[in-house]
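It is worth pausing here to work through a concrete case rather than discussing structure prediction in the abstract. The textbook approach is simple: state the sequence, then state the predicted structure, then interpret. We follow exactly that order.
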Amino acid sequence: MWPRLVSQRLGIDYPLIVAPMAGGPSTPDLVAAVSEAGALGSFGAGYLQPEAIRAAIREIRARTARPFAVNLFVPEVGPPPGEEAVAAAIAALEPIRRELKVPREIGLLGSSPSFSAQLAVVKEERVPAFSFTFGVLPASEVRELHALGMMVMGTATTVEEARVLEANGIDAVVAQGAEAGGHRGTFAGPGEHGLIGTMALVPQIEQAVRIPVIAAGGIMDGRGVVAAFALGATAVQMGTAFLACPESGAHALHKQAVLERSAFDQTRLTRAYSGKLVRGFGNRFMVEVEKAGAILPYPYQNAITRELRTEAAKQGRSDLASMWAGQGAPLAAEKRAGELVREVVAHAERVAAKLA
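Step two, the predicted structure:
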């Protein structure tokens, strides 16, 4: 029952990919455990400095000889916000800063890592597979990655984006449905234009492109896997299902939110934390920042909320912390990553057999 296009190209046993959950959940332990179980572990490196990425890659290799992927964020080009907009956004966060007792004034702290330097490390380390989100990788870069023996995957939330990615020579497209947790990968238009559900998006993209389609968004178990294959996907990507694994680097509050469904609101989309649409558990931070109406574009909003998000997690403040999750979160369970991969595989085979 298992489609072979993606798994044969990658040299993995099952066409299952664990999403690259940047910002904490992705760890070398999680990636290695998933890859050792016969699926593809993906390391979300979008926020890391180049040498930290190199160290993570080498740590993964020390734990497994199986294939794995590294994911980066394609930088979004846009003018920086004006002083008045920055001042208004910082003022909107001031009550939360005082409540959390963050000692110094919020500002546009630090800078995003250099994408070209990050990508240079990926090339130098010759990782087996590379994926990217938030944009389009130039065709020249795709050709260079191919020359180094890497499989290249890009993220699309619309048919238009999938066609653009295919034209740039990538090997497979990740069709990210609206159910997916974390940041939306939309790049060809406003984020609201990329909110198509997985069940509607996958067959549309599969019909529009000739490269393999990887379904992502709301897939939590074998039922979702079989459904994705029926829709035309040749692989699936799962993130939220692995958030509560012991190998996940998600903070304890985040894991608690995933596992204790009744204690937390349903997931929702917001720009309050980063300036880009992202799906996570609804809370007071989202409501109050959105009500204030002063939100900077990504990545500037992400920069001015960074300290607040970190401190909220340390203090166990679920009403203020950022906790990304997809709409399938109520189906999550706390299991070791390798065990979860094997369980998903066995469940999918049972479902397929029952349907047959």
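Step three, interpretation. The CA atoms of residues 138 and 168 lie 7 Å apart. The chain has a mean pLDDT of 95.
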